[in-house]
């Protein structure tokens, strides 16, 4: 007889031989034992988890001559014929190659006929999600009300592709991926039965490569046994499965810790030349870093290591890492794995990930004594101080509250970063200030605001021109941050000056000042000049001497009133105070 692969020779023939899936086996066995089976079942789960094997075992138990039983006897004529595939009452249907509605109608027409030699006529439809919509519609009515002698078992790896009307008419069983320990245990049973010596580390490498699929694991085991000859070695397993050796992991980890990106990239290039898939490499690195983190946090759980073997060298490597570094590297690799799915240049993503890991700074964590580091304390203190100052500025700037005390004003001036109050320039403007200049600017203020970009005009929402000479004007800002942003934005300054010159006919240079600083400078200038601020009964010539004395509160210079007077004339505009 021709050689048969391990996964065919050692396919489970009873529920007790199945690996894992305890929740599925117990439910089906109880239903068989107490005659509570239904007409339709849906087995869903990843590939190689035993869906088709469970369907055949269930079919044998239903038609076993010793029924009701929780396990098929595998000795009666019915069980033997099902095992050989010669039983005409158990029909296996591959939906992947027979997805058209015509094939489904042919099955439906034969459903009404009674079984020839068995209690039930059982239809096992594999990869059922591949059926067309028409085929599903044809199956729907029969699946809802089949004859008493018919049982449907549907198997799929993608249950989300099935119509809900189909799923709701079936008892659904979700098969889980096999654990690495379960896969290793099954391979040990197979090798012991075949009298083949084995190395447990080799079996771990195969189980890791199988990614939870028992069929994949047995197929890889078959390849390794054929490749190795008399004795399986770790090198043979790494070559067949496409994995990399633990020594290579050590070398790359050492290069990354030493920030030797040249060595790390050279080792990566060597792995790619040897035929290693970068996508698989990323997955292996994530698992390796996870093993390092596991040994750091729970040294006694070395049995849970998935990729690395528990040895003194591995423990020494784990001690050299900070947990924060491993968390960061796992995060970088996970994001790289997601990005690789949409690119054909997977090697470039892997190289970029190594560069990020070398260049990234490890997050600052608490020291071993439980206290924060001095650098972290200094940063937190600075941020807290900044938050308090901003809150105070907002409080003083809104709701018409009184001006802050002089001591607080000086403090706020000192904390401005990168902005120096141009006191001398402001005093020059005040010495040469004229009322016509400030009126010209305020009259055209609304028009200029409307012509600016939204991002630029937003800076001026809480700003106001308060004094002007023939070549400059003082622009007062309610908030210090807006003042600093306007002074540092050269694009805004250029556009603002050009528009102002276009509408006023003069080239005015803006001088920026925060509200608190303006009040202090204005007060000092009035005292030094012998002027009287706030006197509304002054003569006209006095007002021209002191055109800025009623700056923010002067109603006659309201920009909206000025614009209305410009459009309709002063004789037709009346101002009513609310």
Characterization of the model:
This protein is of the alpha/beta class and 578 residues long. It has four domains: 6-174, Rossmann fold, CATH 3.40.50; 180-241, Helicase, Ruva Protein, domain 3 (Orthogonal Bundle), CATH 1.10.8.60; 246-359, Zinc Finger, Delta Prime, domain 3 (Up-down Bundle); 416-572, GMP Synthetase, Chain A, domain 3 (2-Layer Sandwich), CATH 3.30.300.180. It has helices at residues 6-9, 22-33, 51-63, 77-84, 101-111, 133-144, 164-167, 180-193, 200-210, 214-228, 234-241, 246-257, 261-273, 278-297, 312-319, 323-340, 346-359, 374-397, 406-415, 423-431, 435-443, 445-451, 454-459, 480-488, 490-504, 515-529, 540-545, 559-568, and strands spanning 40-44, 90-94, 121-126, 150-156, 171-174, 463-468, 472-477, 509-514. A five-stranded parallel β-sheet has the order 2-3-4-1-5, covered by helices on one side. A three-stranded mixed β-sheet has the order 6-7-8, with helices on both faces. α9 packs parallel to α11 (234-241) and α10 crosses α11 (234-241). The N and C termini lie far apart (107 Å).
CATH architecture of the largest domain: 3-Layer(aba) Sandwich
> How is the CATH topology of the largest domain named?
Rossmann fold
Instruction: Please mark out the parts with pLDDT under 50 across 5 or more consecutive residues, or reply none.
Output: 364-370, 399-417, 533-545, 549-556
Report the principal-axis shape.
elongated
Helix content: 40-55%
Largest sheet: 5 strands, parallel
Rounded to the nearest angstrom, the distance between the terminal CA atoms is 107 Å
CATH hierarchy class name of the largest domain: Alpha Beta
Structural class: alpha/beta
- Mean pLDDT over the residues: 80
The number of distinct helices, counting runs of at least 4 residues, comes to 28
């Amino acid at each position: 007889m021709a050689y048969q692969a391990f996964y065919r020779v050692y396919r489970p023939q009873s529920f007790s031989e199945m690996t894992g899936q305890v929740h599925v086996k117990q439910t089906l066995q109880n239903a068989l034992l107490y005659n509570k089976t239904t007409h339709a079942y849906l087995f869903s789960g990843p590939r190689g988890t035993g869906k088709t094997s469970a369907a055949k075992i269930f079919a044998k138990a239903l038609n076993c001559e010793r029924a009701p039983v929780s396990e098929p006897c595998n000795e009666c004529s019915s069980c033997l014929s099902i095992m050989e595939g010669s039983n005409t009452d158990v029909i296996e249907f591959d939906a992947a190659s027979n997805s058209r509605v015509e094939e489904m109608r042919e099955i439906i027409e034969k459903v009404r006929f009674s079984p020839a030699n068995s209690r039930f006529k059982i239809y096992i439809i594999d990869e059922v999600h591949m059926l067309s919509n028409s085929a599903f519609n044809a199956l729907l009515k029969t699946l809802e009300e089949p004859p008493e002698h018919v049982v449907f078992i549907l198997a799929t790896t993608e249950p989300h592709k099935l119509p809900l009307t189909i799923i709701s008419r079936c008892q659904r069983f979700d098969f889980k991926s096999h654990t690495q320990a379960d896969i290793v245990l099954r391979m040990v049973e197979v090798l012991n039965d075949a009298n083949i010596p084995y190395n447990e580390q080799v079996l771990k490498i195969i189980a890791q490569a199988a990614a939870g699929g028992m069929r994949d694991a047995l197929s890889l085991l078959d390849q390794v046994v054929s490749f190795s000859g008399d004795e399986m070695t770790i090198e043979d397993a790494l070559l067949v499965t496409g994995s990399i050796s633990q020594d290579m992991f050590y070398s790359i980890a050492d290069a990354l810790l030493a920030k030797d990106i040249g060595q790390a990239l050279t080792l990566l290039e060597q792995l790619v030349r040897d035929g290693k898939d970068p996508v698989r490499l990323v997955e292996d690195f994530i698992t390796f870093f996870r093993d390092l983190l596991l040994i750091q946090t729970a040294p006694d759980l070395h049995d849970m290591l998935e990729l690395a073997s528990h040895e003194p060298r591995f423990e020494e490597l784990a001690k050299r890492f900070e947990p924060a570094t491993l968390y960061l590297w796992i995060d970088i690799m996970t994001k790289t794995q997601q990005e690789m799915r949409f690119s054909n240049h997977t090697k470039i993503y892997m190289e970029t990930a190594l560069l990020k890991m070398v260049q990234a700074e490890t997050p600052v964590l608490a020291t071993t004594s439980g206290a924060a580091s001095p650098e972290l304390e200094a940063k937190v203190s600075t941020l807290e101080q900044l938050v308090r100052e901003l809150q105070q500025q907002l409080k003083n700037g809104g709701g018409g509250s009184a001006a802050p005390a002089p001591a607080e004003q000086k403090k706020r001036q000192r904390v401005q970063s990168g902005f120096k109050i141009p006191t001398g320039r402001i005093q020059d403007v005040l010495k040469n200030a004229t009322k016509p200049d400030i009126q010209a600017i305020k009259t055209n203020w609304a028009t200029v605001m409307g012509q600016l970009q939204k991002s630029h005009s937003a800076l001026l929402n809480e700003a106001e021109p308060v004094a002007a000479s023939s070549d400059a004007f003082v622009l007062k800002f309610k908030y210090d941050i807006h003042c600093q942003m306007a002074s540092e934005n050269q694009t805004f300054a250029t556009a603002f000056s050009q528009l102002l010159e276009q509408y006023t006919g003069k080239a005015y240079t803006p001088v920026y000042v925060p509200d608190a600083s303006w009040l202090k400078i204005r007060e000092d200038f009035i005292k030094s000049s012998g002027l009287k601020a706030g006197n509304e009964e002054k003569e006209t010539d006095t007002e021209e001497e002191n055109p800025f004395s009623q700056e923010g509160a002067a109603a006659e210079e309201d920009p909206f009133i000025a614009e209305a007077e410009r459009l309709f004339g002063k004789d037709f505009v009346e101002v009513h105070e609310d």
